[in-house]
UniProtKB/TrEMBL annotation:
PANTHER family linked to this entry: BLR6921 PROTEIN, MAJOR FACILITATOR SUPERFAMILY MULTIDRUG TRANSPORTER MFSC
GO MF annotations, alphabetized: transmembrane transporter activity
Domain Major facilitator superfamily (MFS) profile, residue spans: 1-472
Annotated source species: Streptomyces inhibens
GO biological process, one term: response to antibiotic
Protein name, per record: MFS transporter
Transmembrane segments: 35-54, 66-90, 96-118, 125-146, 152-173, 185-203, 215-234, 255-278, 290-312, 319-338, 446-468
PROSITE patterns documented for this protein: MFS, SUGAR_TRANSPORT_1
Lineage, broadest ranks: Bacteria, Bacillati, Actinomycetota, Actinomycetes, Kitasatosporales
Main location: membrane
UniProt-annotated location(s): Cell membrane
Amino acid sequence: MVIAIAQLMVVLDATIVNIALPSAQRELGMSDANRQWVITAYTLAFGGLLLLGGRIADLVGRKKTFMIGLVGFAVASGLGGAATGSWLLFGARALQGAFGALLAPSALSLLTTTFTIGKERSKAFGIYGAIAGGGAAIGLIAGGLLTEYLDWRWCLYVNVPIAVIAFVGAAVFLRDTPERGRVHLDIRGVALGCGGLVAIVYGCSEAKPRGWGDGLVIGLLVGGVVLLAVFAWWQTRARHPLLPLHIVRDRNRGGAFLTMALAVIAIFGMFLFLTYYFQTVLGYSPVKAGLAFLPMVAAIVVGSTQISARLLHLLPPRFLMVPGALLASAGLFTLTFLTAEPAYVAQVLPAELLVGLGMGLTFMPVMATATTGVAPYDSGVTSATVNTAQQVGGSIGTALLNTIATSTSATYIAGQVADVARRSGARGLTPAVRDGIVKDGVVHGFTLAIGVGSAIMLLAALVAGLLVNGRAPKHGPVPAADSAKSADAV
């Protein structure tokens, strides 16, 4: 529970500020061009520094970095909540992301090294998987409640008591035995790997306002890919690699990383679209919009803790991943039939339940598979790679699907306005008619983008079915299958 509380804080902070952003923008006088940095500063620092954070956890000890991450995250949150200007808030969000990059890999690697027995491990990963899958939705709910009933600043202040509780719990309950002397820091690898990740995450963030054809976006994405290619080359030659390549070469682990990335690409756009659908199309308040996600959160918890956790030690992981991804794909496909007319109970609710169950079935075995059989001194960087797949997938998914939605909506609205003007003349285009066209166009863009997400989720099911061929774990301790290879690598 200590690990779960800390992980929840990191995951929900990626979305909790979204609903508070309009209020923060008005109070701090942010420009429309700069307001995205409240989100981008966090994702850049978090996504770019994860590999470094994971290796530091291996180097100095997971419990120590976990507790340092908690303190730093709490301080950064307090600074952000007290910000008197926009750039102070941007800096605090970047600091949050940096300490989150230290905290998240430490949390998952502590889970991996603490729970090694079959049923016990399944229960622990069931709770963790529920948080990984539902954290974004929980952030939207919390953001709505805090913004409407308290103040936008409490979306940041709320992290302070959470971090204090987790810190005390960590001091009392967590145990760690760092493997000193076996891990070294690869400085060139840090520069190449973190630089490549920052470039890709930043490129995806800029693709939302600028478009994928913009020169800066293309330059960042190409530069990021080149840096990561050089990083991969360097890891084959470095004496002490930042990311030992045997970690990603393993068929099951590599399949789990890829499944995670694809699933998050497909899902993250849905959170964005449904938030806008609830508030701009259906006219929900921030609180009502947040609460509308509750059924999905409940389904994720049930799928992860009551189904996956009970079956993971009995079934091969892909027997959970594939049905889970198919359920999520079906739920996303259901949303492609949305219209501007209110249809929460008839369409949104069934889709949320399907997607939630699917995510609960998918995320938990993905994380368990990705971290199984890793030597303790590689657990931090392995956990960081899982988080990196999730973070980069979220950045790509949000930017890609948002571009599809906005471009499709603009084309639809322009065509409908021209059609009405041609048939009825300028008088026929009343404010009510124009408003109806805009809402129809927005929903049309959402449904097309979510349809693409559904197809990507099908691809995740295919990847899991073809690549992840591991057997059901036994009831005994999970073996560190890569120990010998890890020793050779480091």
